[in-house]
Amino acid sequence: MGGGSNRGGAGEVSGSDHDGGLRKPLLHTGSWYRMTSRQSSVAPGASSMAVLRESHVSAFLCTLIVALGPIQFGFTSGFSSPTQDAMARDLNLSISEFSAFGSLSNVGAMVGAIASGQMAEHIGRKGSLMIAAILNIIGWLAISFAKDASFLYMGRLLEGFGVGIISYTLSVTFGIFLAYLLGMFVPWRLLAVIGALPCTVLIPGLFFIPESPRWLAKMNLMEDCETSLQVLRGFETDITTEVNDIKRDVTSSSKRTTISFQELNQKKYHTPLLLGIGLLVLQNLSGINGVLFYASSIFKAAGVTNSDLATCSLGAIQILATGVTTWLLDRAGRRMLLIISTSGMTLCLLAVSVVFFLKDKISQDSNSYYILTMISLVAIVAFVITFSFGMGAIPWLMMSEILPVSIKSLGGSIAALANWLTSFAITMTTNLMLTWSVGGPHHTFLVFQL
Per-residue pLDDT tens for 161-199? Predict the structure, then answer.
């Protein structure tokens, strides 16, 4: 490619480097850490502890900046829960209109998930995140200044496209909690402006972190590849072996032919593909996004006096549960965690369904009603905890592991599309089902349990 020929070797003069940067700014990884890396490697008088601290700061900065993307993802997911009543009142929205608003982020995410692969291929991971951040900011501002439902829909679609490019990590749960917490204290329009802040910080931050070494190698920018990898691994680390591995992988992948949909239909691919897609579809059919998107309304229907506080507590508990899961993954085994997770979720959903059924039969002033309210509160929280223990992260991990390398890109895109499609169906229908009739909550959780 043209970008590769412009950056041919390490002996290239700085003027050529600068010109290349002007032509294709997203292909280059910045200069601050290139200079730092070279200084660290050629300064024999520097203490090893100083170099170690320097590398730790660089790695921490990269992690912190990139984590803003998933936080934005979580904020988008959690926004609809604390804002439903105020938005419906201010803009005169019906239940179906707000349900469409809540679920349209999934439609945008379908497009974003499909486009992310090609975007990352042509402009790199940093360029993809930059576009995602800009679209998210525009989306949040459209929501904040919305005069009617059409502005909300446009904003939610743009947000969804952005989050479809961003990966799922622990910081997503922090973003959900942040939306729940701030939603207790600030108006929804201001909350939408706050929602744009992570991406507002992410955009300038992307100029200070390296591009993916593997992508730089694919672009034949080997000097930048080595510098980027040195920053990510630490300036004191010998990266020679890993650089050679990356070169070998890139050469091998360039020779590999892209598999087509027709070839994907081969019998040998059926089992891993169906297993990967099935896990991601079941993840959403459990109703988790319906619970997280409309947690405040669910707690209110359950009779919880302070539904906003309960929702905020739910978000905090989810962070803790997800953190514990990252520790358990390699210790308890994924199969065991999936069994515990799905069994626990089934029991919790059944308990919530039974509680809502019984509450319709008794007086709200009775002690039994209060007891049932507490049971429903505990069961909903336990449902989110057990989801986090297995079904939250393991389906994505297993999909990346069980898909053969030859179909990982296409198969992963199909699985992601199925995931977002079922997420849209759940988030669109949950709110409608909850208000469908007097027994709406009971039927909703009964369906999720099945």
Answer: 988 887 555 568 888 989 999 999 999 999 999 999 999
Determine the average pLDDT of the residues in 376-391. 93
C-alpha distances out from residue 391 to 67, 340, 346, Å: 22, 10, 12
Same topology, domains 23-36+50-256 and 263-450? Answer is yes
Amino acid in position 146: A
Report which of 162, 153, 136, 142 is spatially closest to residue 102, judged by C-alpha positions: 153
CA distance 321 to 304: 22
Mean pLDDT calculated for residue range 428-446: 81
CA distance 123 to 218: 11
- Show the CA angle centred on residue 13, arms to residues 227 and 244, nearest 5°: 30
| Domain ranges across the chain | 23-36+50-256, 263-450
Helix 48-78 with 80-91: angle, nearest 10 deg = 40
Helix (H, G, I), strand (E, B) or coil at 211: coil
Answer whether 273's CB lies under 8 Å from 411's CB.
yes
Which tokens in the block code for residue 229? Answer: 């990898």
What is the topology classification, in CATH, of domain 263-450? Growth Hormone; Chain: A; (1.20.1250)
Query: Which segment, 42-51, 193-202, 403-412, is predicted with the most confidence on average?
Result: 193-202
pLDDT in tens, 305-342: 888 899 999 999 999 998 888 888 878 888 888 999 99
Q: What is the pLDDT of residues 199-244, one digit of tens each?
A: 999 888 888 888 888 888 888 888 888 888 887 777 777 888 888 8
- CA dist 331 and 341 (Å) reads 15
Handedness of CA 120, 126, 130, 133 (dihedral sign): positive
User: What are the tokens at 269?
Assistant: 């691919």
Encode pLDDT of 387-396 as tens digits: 998 888 888 8
Q: How many whole angstroms from its chain centre is CA 232?
A: 22
Please list the helix, strand and coil fractions of the chain in percent, rounded to the nearest 5, in that order.
80, 0, 20
23-36+50-256: CATH number: 1.20.1250.20
